Fold:
Amino acid sequence: VGEWALPSIGMPLVKFDDIPQLANPVIKNDYQVSGFVFKTRKKTAWDSAIINAQVDFANDLKDPKSCATPSKLTWKLPKPFGCPFFIVDKLEVDKNGKYALEASSDKVADGLKIDFKSDLADLNKVSLGCTYTGVKHTQIKTDLKLTKPQDFTAEVTYACPVAVTGMKFSSPVLSGNLPDFGVRMLKGPLFLSLVAKEKLSAYSGTCMYQATPEVKVAATYQHGGKDTGKWSAAVSWKGLYRVKLAQDSVCLSLKHTVAKGFTALAGTKYGFAKGDISYGLQLSVE
Structure:
């Protein structure tokens, strides 16, 4: 094995879509480069229930009449009405008055977690899923529509001594389509991942390197598919200051803790094609 990290210890099993996730804090997260957002999070004494509120200040500075404040409220209930057998992971209402409910339970059997999702409006959109981790170093996930079980997705991720590998497929695989494949590896400060989709015709590669305890650099490249040729590279210092360069733009981001529980995130983006500039600000209170 040498210096390669053992995934079962240093790289825990993840969902297939999260295979490149270790690089996200550098190359994807915390780039508020357009719009103005206010977020608040409060943990209550009601069975440790958590409420999150988000207000988006949509405002075109050239048109004062365009100002609007669409909001979104999200609750998490670890013990709904004192019941310890399931968790309401998300109960959400958005700016359009649409609902989203996600609940789960890991009390059914050892190593098995059941998930339930609904928009509380259409029975055809209700989905059931399960995650099984009863096999050592292996995670199996399935998800299907309640009224159309043939419309399903399934995935398997496995931690071997040098990597985490994964495979994901959906109902078209029954007609001969190929699954998606992915792999992630970690060696000291270096992280690598590769995901192949669309019948092995579209590849997405991601890498991240921790140059110093304060500095991380990351890059991603897409080959094949509708996004072929797209790339981006970013550097982060202490997780507070970020610069990202892509094939069509450059972004700057600054994160600052104003006081305990009060964080400000600001960013700007310059587009090469039109020479346009956008900027944004996000305030978070916990």
About this structure: Residues 1-10 have pLDDT under 50 and may be disordered. The first strand starts at residue 35 and ends at 43. The chain has one helix and 20 strands.
